[in-house]
Specification:
Chain A has 331 residues and is an alpha/beta fold. The first copy, chain A, is built from 11 helices and 15 strands. Strand 13 of chain A pairs antiparallel with strand 13 of chain B, so a sheet runs across the interface. Chains A, B: One of its GO terms (molecular function) is oxidoreductase activity, acting on the CH-CH group of donors, NAD or NADP as acceptor.
Chain lengths: 331, 331
């Protein structure tokens, strides 16, 4: 009987995200029971939401990963054995397989994916990042041509797609990033109208210069001091979509939000969302997103790490912004 | 030619709201030109929104009252002369007539009101407070039977109607008030399920005791420290309607809002609104509200001051909570 590797969460993160939180185990490759399929994962995705899943905070929108459980993540793989009527050996599937080389599944929550698409593109665009951008920007944000969008974490997996979808819809798009390289990428390659480096720019001055007509849509992926500045430039009837607050997830004292006065003065709507509420809508979300993908309008940049061990080492990049594009692990 | 009195705003408020901000003038009673009507006002309304209208803050949702202009307010009165095809002498009308005994009008923004209804009831229920509660609670908040609502400023003109409309819809309703008298009134007379005295109660403990199933709807009229506590008890998919922040309007340093983490964790929607955006919907709002009025479900308490001069003296009550019910001036 041959074996495979998986990585379990064994400790809750406090400050540092390092290998001490995990334990790598070797397990016998199982046989699917009636109604099950076995997937060999080729690529697994590393997403900022995982930081939340690792913490024991019971207030979160999804139960934390239990200690001793295989770390949760999404990924793509190939069906290598099946006793499930809907899945055949050789098919490409996407699902929440976790940090593992092999996974048994009942088929629930699994989506078939055209095997011709590059795995990097599937995880960068059609998987969680693209579905998140579609739900948050297109469905909740209701962007209108001529409006101005500011997106934080703009070079990130979600932010880069949010900005590109907004450009496709005819908006002025300003991205907030953490390096000159990322600033250049979102402007030169993705076609954003401007970028703010939150680490080096004078935030108020640069934001005012780049949003001469104020801000109609604010897509928040990060938190941090830029939040107050963008909030202060919101136009009447502005919409704020709160998708991520990576700066606050591991903080003992999350930053206070802005005064609510502007919510009245500008009649703002602030809306938080998370994708687990929308799993059942994935087919519609994919249908909404697919035309943008097929038109070739959506660029992506994949940051591919190699091998299961690299996942543990790659996690901190999600917090310190060290990744260059959508972070994933090739197995 | 006989004369009437009006009161003009001549100074912007800084800290105190007193008579030094105003000037009373005597003016000749005008004749309506073609297309105009002349209204003799019987009752004018004092509303918290007026504090905002008096300040020069250009970010507000409605232009400030200009210095030297008659102070803005809504009221009811009788048509005493008309050269307008739609209005006849003797009809009862409601509109933004200002602090004045007589007002000329083009008819724009004026609503006819059944002359059989008591003026106190018109200004307490059918005018701004009732329309605000209808728009904010029923349209934006989408209350569902069995949910829990917390409303701040619960004994106020808007808050008392919000709570009663929510009770009529089958919600558990907790009101935040600033005195024992008000606490007793909202529970005993209005039928709320509980009240919190923000001046004397242990906010966290009392709120937890009164909202055992958390909070689904938060109707915010006041701001202040209770905001953070209610925000912390919001349930998944909770809705927060921001209608007023009286504690912050005159503050140099408005209180920061709560951290946005809960907006994601609980997938909250926070929505600010002001009635000037909805003037054109007043007929529909009245139609929505009228069945509740006619069913006798909506109690009100009018705090009636006498005479134009009393308006200047009554204004501080809106800030310090000294009014006992909907504040208005009988002329």
């Amino acid at each position: 009987m041959s074996h495979y590797h998986a990585v379990k969460l064994v400790r809750r993160p406090e400050k540092a995200l390092d290998a001490s939180l995990f334990e790598k185990v070797s397990l016998p490759i199982p046989e699917p029971a009636e109604g099950q399929l076995l997937v060999r994962q080729s690529h697994m995705s590393l997403d900022p939401a995982m930081i939340g899943w690792m913490s024991a905070d019971t207030e979160s929108y999804i139960p934390p990963v239990a200690l001793g459980e295989v770390m949760r993540s999404s990924g793509v793989g190939e069906v290598v054995a099946s006793r499930h009527p809907d899945f055949a050996v050789g098919e490409r599937v996407m699902g929440m397989f976790g940090w593992t080389q092999y996974a048994l599944s009942s088929g629930a929550g699994i989506t078939k994916i055209d095997a011709a698409l590059p795995a990097e593109m599937v995880l960068s665009v059609l998987a969680l990042p693209g579905l998140t951008a579609t739900q948050g920007l297109l469905r909740l944000g209701k962007p209108k041509a001529g409006e101005t969008l500011v997106v934080t974490g703009a070079a990130g997996s979600v932010g880069s797609l949010v900005g590109q979808l907004a450009k496709a819809e005819g908006l002025r798009v300003i991205g907030v990033v953490g390096s000159e390289d990322k600033a250049q990428w979102v402007v030169d390659t993705l076609g954003f109208d401007g970028a703010i480096n939150y680490k080096t720019d004078d935030l108020a001055a640069k934001l005012a210069e780049l949003t001469p007509n104020g801000v109609d849509l604010f897509f928040e992926n990060t938190g941090g001091p830029i939040q107050q500045h963008i909030f202060g430039r919101m136009n009447a009837h502005g919409r704020i979509i709160v998708c991520g607050l990576i700066a606050d997830y591991l903080s003992d004292t999350p930053a206070p939000g802005p005064s609510w006065l502007n919510i009245i003065k500008k009649r703002l709507t602030i809306q938080g969302f998370t994708m687990p509420d929308h799993w059942h809508e994935i087919p519609e979300l994919i249908a909404t997103l697919l035309p943008y993908v097929q038109s070739g309008k959506l660029q992506y940049r994949a940051h591919v790490l190699e091998g299961l061990d690299a996942a543990m080492e790659g996690l901190p990049l999600l917090v310190n912004g060290g990744n260059q594009g959508k972070l994933m692990v090739a197995l």
